[in-house]
Amino acid sequence: MATLSRPYSASADFPTVDSFKKVLVYKNHQFDISTNASGAVRELVIRVSRNNQFLITIRQKTDGWVVNAETADLDQNNSPEIYIYSCTYGSGSFGKVYGFQFFPTSFDAIHMVPLRQDLAEGYMGHDMFKIENESLVRQFPIYRAGDANARATGGTRIIKYQLDEIEKKLLLTPDVDTQN
Length: 180
Prior knowledge:
Low-confidence stretches: 1-18
Distance between the termini: 35 Å
CATH superfamily: Periplasmic lysozyme inhibitor of I-type lysozyme
Largest sheet: 9 strands, mixed
CATH architecture: Beta Barrel
Helix content: under 10%
Mean pLDDT: 86
CATH topology: Lipocalin
Structural class: mainly beta
CATH class: Mainly Beta
Shape: globular
Order of helices and strands: EEEEEEEEEHEEEE
Number of strands: 13
Radius of gyration: 17 Å
Strand content: over 45%
């Protein structure tokens, strides 16, 4: 368990207009996830409850719009995690993951390590994320020199991430790299 945790504190504010809204349940936790309706930078709002008792509202600025959210326990420590995927505006549609892990009295942010140079070769965005077989999976087209932004010819890169605690930080680190 990470030791640099934030304690729970109550806040009842919740936006009424949503461009994304999803409710996730993991064991005895419920996560009500929403964003506001406009702008390139949006506010992500996560209301967390456990055993039907409100714990906290988390507010996070996001770059672009939220496209999906999932829950998991990638490090198998019985503390639920949520993963929220966003996509930037523009021709690249670069993806980002916002993650949090919830402990009995606190929560920690989860960060994705930057793409290593070998994994970033041919990367121009168009990310897709999903939870699959105890990993967070990132998939994107591989571009070759001269490829148009809408037409990648280098295949697809699939990167599987595992959740690790490194220097008291929760990090998604590449586990397996496969090209199709």
